[in-house]
Amino acid sequence: MPATKDVVISIRNLRKSFANPDGEQVIVLDNVTFDIYQGETIVVMGGSGCGKSTLLNCLIGEHEVTSGEILFKTKEMPQPRNIVGMREPEMNEIRKRFGILFQSGALFNSMTLAENVALPLREHSAVDPSIIDIVVTLKLQQVHMLPHRDKLPAQLSGGQKKRAGLARATVLDPEILFYDEPSAGLDPVTSATIDDLITDLSKKLSVTSVVVTHEMDSAFRIADRLVMLEKGRVLKIGPRAEFEQLRDKALDELADENEKLINQFLNGFTKGPLTDTDGTSQFEELLIRSEYSEI
């Protein structure tokens, strides 16, 4: 359950569309509305093309929104602020209050691990260099990467790069952490290790975590609440226990088509409302129509 009922991000009637090669507008997010509470870990999930990556990019201000609102309420804000249409200098000030773990880690190859982690402090603070080194040491300790501080990214494994990226994402002591497919490309043991780090840091740093993933094992390990997107709309939002119950129900116990769809997705079944007669999923059909490889 959320640590508090204080809303940190409020998403209201969010719509986002892209033009396909024929000039037609493809709706990727369709009136998405939900709140994110302070201190919770909320997982946004769904199949390829459902809109979860687009939603993340809207939340961090990388995509222009077609319509709707995204209201942030950080500690220093007396009132929530809508980032839709916000000027870049103002958006950059809000970005200082959140950190992002990108799918690849997004480390600079020419910099050592310590230099990568120190970069946000050097660019966005007036902290003395001696203090920066102390902060970097502490952040690397938190993710168990201190022995690797002088290595280049090419010398790190995939899991180590993710941990290094997590150290950099937390170096400015953010209030919100965004994770883009944190378990992607990792073996099951390394994936579970990253999940443990996410949970541990959320508690120790008292941050709000927004995780975009299609890895169900990971989602059920870390989530307080889950949001399932399907064709750009919110199909269901609720606590982890509700999704666990839907996952474990027999087909004849499911109340409607939406529950059957969620059950199929959570279990990875090949037959059900998500797939048509030739086995092509609705998500794949959306990708074929839009010609977007990742939305």
Structure in words:
With 295 residues, the protein is an alpha/beta fold. The chain has one domain (7-97, 174-290): P-loop containing nucleotide triphosphate hydrolases (Rossmann fold, 3-Layer(aba) Sandwich), CATH 3.40.50.300. Helices cover 37% and strands 22% of the residues. It is built from ten helices and ten strands. The protein has a six-stranded mixed β-sheet, with helices on both faces. The chain has a four-stranded antiparallel β-sheet with strand order 2-1-4-5, covered by helices on one side. Helix 4 packs across helix 5 (158-169) and helix 8 (240-248) packs across helix 9 (257-267). The protein is globular and about 60 Å long.
How is the main sheet built? 6 strands, mixed
Count of all domains: 1
Query: What is the beta-strand fraction?
Result: 15-25%
Name the strands of the widest sheet in spatial order: 6-7-8-3-9-10
- Rg of Cα set: 20 Å
Instruction: Round the mean pLDDT to the nearest integer and report it.
Output: 87
End-to-end Cα distance, whole Å, is: 29 Å
Keywords, separated by commas or semicolons:
295 residues; Rossmann fold; six-stranded mixed beta sheet; 10 strands; disordered C terminus
In short:
By secondary structure, the chain is of the alpha/beta class.
What is the fold's blueprint, element by element?
Elements: E1 7-19, E2 25-37, E3 41-45, H1 52-59, E4 67-72, E5 81-82, H2 88-95, E6 98-101, H3 113-124, H4 129-142, H5 158-169, E7 176-180, H6 188-205, E8 208-212, H7 216-222, E9 225-230, E10 233-239, H8 240-248, H9 257-267, H10 282-290
Helix pairs in contact: 3-4, 3-5, 4-5, 8-9
